[in-house]
Specification:
The complex is a heterodimer. Chain A has twelve helices and no strands. Chain A is an all-alpha fold. Chain A is globular and about 65 Å long. The mean pLDDT of chain A is about 90. Chain A is about 75% helix and about 0% strand. Classes of the chains: A mainly alpha, B alpha/beta.
């Protein structure tokens, strides 16, 4: 097989910067950012008010900011788990079919670049846009924590919240990849948006119910096997992977993410926090699953795109 | 220089997975500075051929040699030297004309100063400099077409491939567009391959044409060559005289005339082996008749096109 001419990444920088610029000025992105800022701000404020009276009693004050909620406002984590996939979908649902619709694809691909570059550039542009936005949000949380609570976060808390930032970014990128793949498969942006949202709702709301029904059907009611199977099936959903890994990182007392038998926790000092390294080990499979899913979905989209006609 | 071959296509074929034969054994070539028109109805395989020439679509068989390169093996080299304007050209509406052109110009990996100069030059040549900083969404269809040509010029291409370049343009814009193509050929020595089903414009600008029908190139050559192929080499001359005199014998006795037909009281159609208009005029004057008009009839591309497709249909029947 002959090696192809030049670098496969010729023109990547051009596409990347154009996409990043597009996403930054995109009205969808701005609306979502305002929404994230408002909701996250509200939940942070409520959490900070609650935590003020416990200053000095808890060594993980910063992390509590992410998880504490007070009726009727959900926690920061809940808001983010809802809004980040939406951001990914909003950025990706017309990534490719939008180019077809605007008749710009033929123009761009007739320039001295390979097809791959368009897909890589778009994905990297979206990744960078989401990374910047989430980083800004993360810095805002750290800053607010110091401002409201008057306590500087410890190194471990910073590390844990940074991992949480990374998990959130991976979660957003996964939904971007799903939406982008839909935009390659479906001609109409409206259809790809609908399919992406339907998948998101399916995995967030319906899959946990379905997995439970399947587990009971196979393993029987109230059995260890059924519970174990339910957890395994549930982990097919990116939402479960995200929530499990976020909780394990933000709540250091989390010792296990699966079904645990009483005999397995004998001798454990319940309520004691796990060291950072142990928490990281706990979520390693989830992180690996995230990376694998992102690569899998991207490869699927890549193959379909390579086979696609320039004229749709 | 004009005899330098810049594009050669031999036995090019494209069969889709569903069994549709979009392009069937097409062969033709282009020389430097030539304007070649691909003619044919919608769905006849013109755009598919163009996409294969550019390497944007893989062929099922045959060879494409463009500027000495194979577009599938060395796509970047080909794309650097060949400009393409698609039939339905689109721009990023939220960007200005300058930004749109500058975006694709960045792929050429030029120095910033040179890129800027080329973009400004191209916009200037297309008379778009004064609107360069306007968003493309404010542009008319004709302006977008000119912008497409400006984008193509930034590349300084050796070959420009234009797919239905005048689609949707008003007559004034069409003539302006065609004049630009001619001047680019003359000033820059560019070679053009354009596809169209607008016969008049193709005839007015193209040196050679290729007729496409159902994926096949049924004929190619200059308009004169095609005219001879479909209508024979004899010439037709229309003669109109004053009055109703019968000049049949007078015309029939002239050398070089093979057929005389009276089309009306004072109108005659003469089929000749060569241009004998001077002799006809002399004969009419010698017969003491008054000559009203003497016209050498030529076959338009439209006549050739109709005849060619009629022949193809009758062959198939």
């Amino acid at each position: 097989m002959k090696k192809r001419e030049g670098s496969a990444l010729t023109g990547l920088k051009v596409v990347f910067f154009k996409e990043l610029q597009d996403y930054a000025g995109n009205i969808r992105m701005i609306v979502l950012m305002v929404l994230i800022l408002l909701t996250a701000g509200a939940s942070m404020y409520v959490a900070a008010q609650t935590l003020r009276s416990y200053v000095g009693e808890d060594s993980f004050m910063l992390l509590n900011l992410f998880t504490i909620s007070q009726n009727p406002i959900p926690s920061f984590l809940t808001f983010i788990s809802f809004l980040v996939p939406l951001t990914g979908i909003a950025l990706g649902f017309d990534a490719i079919n939008g180019e077809f619709q605007n008749r710009t694809l033929g123009r761009v691909l007739s320039q001295p670049i390979y097809r791959d570059v368009l897909l890589f550039g778009k994905a990297l542009g979206a990744l960078a846009a989401m990374a910047i936005v989430l980083l800004a949000l993360w810095l805002l949380v750290i800053g607010s924590a110091m401002l409201f609570l008057g306590v500087p976060p410890s190194g471990e808390q910073i590390a844990r919240s940074l991992i949480y930032y990374l998990i959130t970014l991976l979660y957003g990128v996964l939904w971007y990849m799903i939406a982008m793949t839909c935009s390659i498969i479906f001609k109409q942006p409206a259809v790809s948006a609908l399919v992406s949202i339907a998948l998101w709702l399916f995995f967030m709301i319906f899959w946990p119910m379905i997995s439970q029904i399947i587990a009971i059907g196979i393993g029987g009611v109230d059995t260890y096997e059924a519970a174990k199977l339910s957890v395994i099936l549930n982990r097919i959903s990116p939402y479960t992977l995200y929530v499990e890994s976020a909780i394990a990182m933000l709540n250091p007392t989390t010792r296990s993410l699966g079904v645990v038998l009483f005999s397995q926790v004998q001798g454990a000092l319940m309520g004691n926090p796990l060291p950072f390294g142990q928490s990281l080990l706990l979520i390693w499979p989830q992180m690996t699953a995230f990376f694998a899913s992102i690569i899998l979905v991207f490869v699927l989209g890549y193959i379909v795109f390579q086979r696609k006609e320039i004229r749709m | 220089m004009k005899n330098e071959q810049v594009l050669s296509i031999s036995h090019l074929t494209k069969q889709y997975t569903k069994g549709v034969l979009a392009v069937d054994d097409v062969s033709f070539s282009l020389e430097r500075g030539e304007i070649f028109g691909l003619l044919g109805p919608n769905g006849s395989g013109k755009t598919t051929t163009i996409l294969m020439i550019l390497g944007l679509l893989e062929s099922s068989g045959g060879e494409v040699d463009i500027l000495g390169c194979n577009p599938l093996r060395t796509p970047l080299t080909v794309k650097r030297q060949v400009g393409y304007m698609p039939d339905t050209i689109g721009f990023y509406d939220y960007m200005t004309a300058y930004e749109n052109i500058d975006y694709t110009a960045r792929f050429l990996n030029l120095e910033e100063k040179e890129r800027k100069r080329r973009v400004e030059d191209a916009l200037d040549k297309m008379h778009l400099s004064d609107r360069a900083n306007d968003k493309v969404k404010t542009y008319s269809h004709g302006m977008k077409r000119r912008l497409g040509l400006a984008e193509l010029l930034v590349k300084h291409p050796k070959i420009a491939i234009l797919d239905e370049p005048t689609q949707g343009l008003d007559p004034q814009s069409i003539s302006g567009f065609l004049a630009t193509i001619r001047s680019l050929r003359d000033s820059e020595g560019m070679t053009f391959l354009l596809s169209s089903h607008q016969l008049n414009e193709v005839q007015s600008v193209c040196d050679k044409v290729g007729l496409f029908s159902k994926g096949k190139l049924i004929s190619s050559g200059t308009v004169d060559e095609l005219s001879k192929k479909y209508f024979g080499s004899n010439l037709l001359i229309n003669v109109q005289v004053e009055g109703k005199s019968n000049l049949f014998k007078t015309f029939a006795s002239l050398g070089g005339i093979v057929h005389v037909e009276r089309k009306g009281d004072s109108l005659w159609l003469l089929e000749c082996l060569e241009d004998v208009r001077a002799q006809i005029a002399e004969t009419v004057f010698a017969s003491k008749e008054k000559l009203v008009s003497l016209e050498l009839l030529t076959h338009s591309l439209n006549d050739i096109y109709q005849q060619a497709f009629q022949e193809v249909s009758s062959e198939k029947a």
